[in-house]
Design brief:
Keywords: Coiled coil. The protein is mainly α. The protein has ten helices and two strands, in the order H-H-H-H-H-H-H-H-E-E-H-H. The chain folds into three domains: about 1-80, no CATH class; about 100-580, no CATH class; about 585-615 and about 630-710. The longest helix has about 200 residues, at about 420-615.
Length: about 700
Amino acid sequence: MSLQSTDAFVCQSLNTVTTSHYIMDQHTPMHPLPEEIQKMARDETVCKYCGVSYLILHEYKLMEEKVKAMEKEMQFYRGSVEREKALQAELRSLNLQFEQSKTDNAFQGERIQNLTIQLEKQQNDLQSVFDAQRCLEEQLKEAHSQSQLFRERITCQSVALNKTVPLLHFAKTELISVRKEVLCIFETWAEMKRKLLVEVEEAAKAALTELRILRGSLAGSQNENVCLRDKVKELQLVSDSFVSKTQELQKSLKNENELQNLCQNLDNKTLDLQNQLKTAELNLQKVTSEMQHYRDMLLMKSKDTDECQAKLKLLEQDAENVKSRFNADLLEKENILMDYQQKCKHLLEELTEKKRNEENMIRRASHSDNELAVLKTIAKQAEEEVAKLKQERESMMMSHQNRIEQLQEGFRQKMLKGDGWRAKMESELNKERANHSSELDELAFRLKEEAKIELDIEKQKHQELIRMYQKDQEEMQKKIPVLISSARHDQQMEITLLAGKLQEAQSKLMQKEEAREKEMQSLKNIISDLELRLKHEQNNGYLFSEENKKELDQKSDELKRLTQEHNKLLHNLSLVQEENTFLQETVRRECEERFELTEALTLAREQILEFKKIGEKFPSQHTSTSQSLPSGLLKSNRQKIFTRPTPDKETKLTGRYGDLGPVSASAPTQHRRIDKMGFSALPSPHPPRERASSVGEARKRITAILRQSSQR
């Protein structure tokens, strides 16, 4: 559809071009426009009113050239559809041919691979044949070497037999004598061993009993040490409580010192209390110093106990070391005896082995003769097998050649059915086949020649081996008496050496027994010294434990006494604190009463001043009344200011200026003094300011001291 649409469009464009061409044929320009005009812009060459360009003829000519180029292209594209169809058909046919060629190539490649695999198999078979031949050659070489070794062994064994025959009788007699001596040595050694074991067991039992006793004493001393440590801990707790109480006492002393500044009347009592406290502090210091001394003593004693324990451990270690030494010596002696027994056994075994070797040598000589016959038979069998292998190889070669020819014929028939390019493949295959056949022929010829050469070599080798075996047998028969004589001489030398070694071993055993006896005596002396030391240390430990018990009893008595004194001091302190609290309350009440009295006096002075001012204003009027007024006013003021006390023993001073604070009932004497004094007791109308300021300062001091005491 796309091709048809393009053809229609091309036809229409050609028709339009032809019509326009016929029209423009009438006005063909004779001369081309100059380049300057051609390069002018479009706006300059176009009319501004109608829009037609002034160079329209030049443009028509350009359009004609373009149309001609388009016509040429259309002529080229007119037969493109048919060409494309033909090309597509050719492509399809080529694709089919290509696929067929691919399948043919794959089939031929498979055939070639099969042929190559068959060739490789044939080559592997040939290599296996060659390997088998090599193995046979190696086996023949090994058999030859073994035969030589057997010959050498036969010669050596024959010489050794000749030497050992006369020596065996002499060795038997000497071995009998050696056995008797060894049995005597074993009997003596068994008796010595029993004695040593009995002595060692007795010493070990004594040491174990002593160790048990020492362990019991150690356990008792450890329990006592634990008790002492518990008591020391209790003493430390008591001392800590004393320290805390001393701190509390110091705090109370500070409070008392502060109260002494306020309570001047109680100086004597506080001085007595301070003296008592100083004595208590001295006693406490003495107690602390004694406690430190006791602690030091306990540390020293604990160190002594640790040293005693270390000494006991060292003694135990020494005893264990002695035991280990005894055991090691016994084991060494037993090992030495076992070594000598084993050596004797080895000598007997060597003699028996030599006898067996002689018998084996005789047997091997007979076996070697039999083996020579067997080797001859094996060589014959090998020759027969080689001939069979050659026949099989020839038959395999013939079968492979026939198979290759059949495959070639089938391949030719199939290749003739193909096209001309298949003929080329056949020619190449024929060349390869010719090459393969030539190579196979060469290989077959080479194999045949090599097989013939190898057979000739093997025949020569077998003949040479037979000759060598015969010569070796003759030489072995000549060397047998020489070997026997040399073996006898060697055995005599060995027997003499063994006798010398036995004498040396006996001398060493005697020396070692003497050294053991000396060591046993020295060990007995060491054990006796250790027993004496243990007894002495046990006595010292008992004395030390008794002294510790006495010291602990003394310390416990002193602690009881100190606790009693401490309780007394605490009781005294509680009494002193109660007295101090009572005195503080009394001082506080007196201070409050003084403060209230001073306030009442100031109010009375102010009222009197007011009355005086009123009297000065009216001096002449009502003189009689002025005399009677002061007494009435004073009485009324007194009644207002000083009321009766309440049942709670506290009153309030009331007047014109409100409440004046509580007043205790413990100041009736002061009220009476004021009542008696009247106006005569009052000072001048203008009191000094210094007294008022001193009263305020005293008030502030008293309040601050009371706050501090309440906080504490």
